[in-house]
Amino acid sequence: MNKTAIPLFLSLLFVLAACADDKSTQTVSTDNDNQVKVEAKNENLDGKEIKEFELIAQEGEWEFNSTQSLSVWTFGGTVPGKEIRVKEGEAIRATLINKLEEPTSIHWHGVPLSNKQDGIPGVTQDAVLPGEDYTYEFVANDPGTYWYHSHQDGVNQIDKGLYGTLIVEPKEGESVNKDYTLVLDEWESGSEESSEDHNMMSESSDPKSTDSEDEGSGGMMDEMMAHDMSSYDLFTINGKTSESVEPLKVKRGEKVKLRFINAGYMAHKMHIPVDYRVTHVDGQKINKPKSQSPSILEIAPGERYDIEFTADQNGNFTIDCHGEMKGAENMKINVVFEGESLNMVSHQDDEDSIIDFNKLGENKEGPFSLDNQFDVEYKMDLGVKMNHESMDMEWTINNETFPDTSPLKVNKDDKVKVTLTNNSKDKSVHPMHLHGHFFQVLSKNGKELKGAPIIKDTLNVKPGETYEVAFLADNPGNWLFHCHDLHHASNGMVTMVKYNDFKGFYKSSGDVENMPE
């Protein structure tokens, strides 16, 4: 074999090796300069049962209760949008048809699919223009509770209702009698009472109380008030306020599964007044879930929690939100026993304990530990600052705002540790969401987690908190890592995980203004 044939021979070997593997795994390639490139994994639908869905993005009117309705944007005319429910290993072919007057897209939140299917305008695709359609295809290999939503100007489009649920059942099925999905959200009704509450809070607030690094800047508090959420006065479960929420019907002795999804921009403290177990977080199993006595389950934006209970305790009961805002009193749902009295069993209004990660399940060895040698270690300081030119608030990562944040650069198969610290002077919380990967939560405030391994894709970092998380860089691409309070993301709190030597596939057409947040 002569020397000029060697590069061609090596390239052929790479191609043959890629073909020998399952097409759903990531591949490598060589460019003309013989530099090895990693590619986004392919979604191989060959031989899979394909479930097809048509998701029409459209504007309409939605009734929250008998007296309140708003103009909303939906996938298929309902809030939340059409549920996608498939079995593990089945393929999804979902066609987005855009009947809105603005471009949009679909992101499959929490699903570790191919980078090509992630639905991020300006990163993995162009946003879908009005009147056009776009088809997403992927294999649902990871059972769990997920959701889908727009990632084009998401701060506004999700806020208007452009989201739905995605449930991937395990092959063996769910060992429960009832399976309910509960989507939490909050809305602005625009009522006079809501506006008065908002203005009163703005007028009575002391700018000095923010402990701001921009003390004396009069515009800072005004801008903060724009995102203080006091104007959100409609709190809903599955698009309805309490009097219009359909009760959950159970029979005595049944095992009941509840899937909580937070599609809003604030954390909700849901009071579970019966004994229960948290079986999954962000769709991922908890090892040997422990029984929890009545307590508060706090669910942050983008997070999902699955719980199970047996309907053999007391009688009918109410799951409700223990929040300080007035709208929280309408975020509740009744659980009623079929064929029994409709009288509700009251529960105490005092604050039960909020369960934490250490209490969810029994300890076992996870994918990572603090003793691991990591290939990449990265610190994310989550902060806030005033842009003195625009007089806008900006939420920052390492004092920078997207797209100027420094990306987290990794090689394929790197073990990566990220330290997230919330130093935001405005006391805001930051539910940080990583696309395309699951991470393990290793420690909180310097203390190693001792319970069941906690595997997530969205983690709520409260003021002053520090978490260490770790993930395996096994899904090549360009991926967002951002706050899922999209007020913060749209004002800067976004960075990216970028694989070194990644063979890009996306090129902007120049025909659309892509707005990835």
Topology:
Layout: H1 5-20, E1 28-30, E2 36-38, E3 50-63, E4 69-75, E5 81-87, E6 91-98, E7 107-109, E8 133-139, E9 144-149, H2 154-157, E10 163-169, E11 178-187, H3 192-204, H4 218-225, E12 234-237, E13 248-250, E14 255-262, E15 268-272, E16 276-281, E17 284-285, E18 291-292, E19 295-299, E20 304-310, E21 317-321, E22 332-337, E23 376-387, E24 392-397, E25 408-410, E26 415-422, E27 430-434, E28 439-444, E29 447-448, E30 454-456, E31 458-461, E32 466-472, E33 478-483, H5 486-489, E34 494-499
Parallel strand pairs: 3-6, 5-10, 11-14, 13-22, 23-26, 25-34
Antiparallel strand pairs: 1-2, 3-4, 6-8, 7-9, 9-10, 11-12, 14-20, 15-19, 15-21, 16-17, 16-18, 16-20, 21-22, 23-24, 26-32, 27-31, 27-33, 28-29, 28-30, 28-32, 33-34
Provide key terms for this protein:
517 residues, mainly beta, 7-stranded mixed beta sheet, 5 helices, 34 strands, disordered N terminus
